[in-house]
Amino acid sequence: MSYENSAGLGVNNQYGVRDTQDSAAVSGGKVEAQGSVHEAVVYFTGDELGATEVVTSLSIPAGSRVLDATLEIVEAITMGNADNDIVIGTATTSETNGVDFDNTTGAAGAYAGAAANGTWAGVLAADTSAAVQVTGTTAGATGGKGKIVVRYLKV
Question: What DSSP assignment string belongs to 55-67?
Answer without folding.
Answer: EEEEEEPTT-EEE
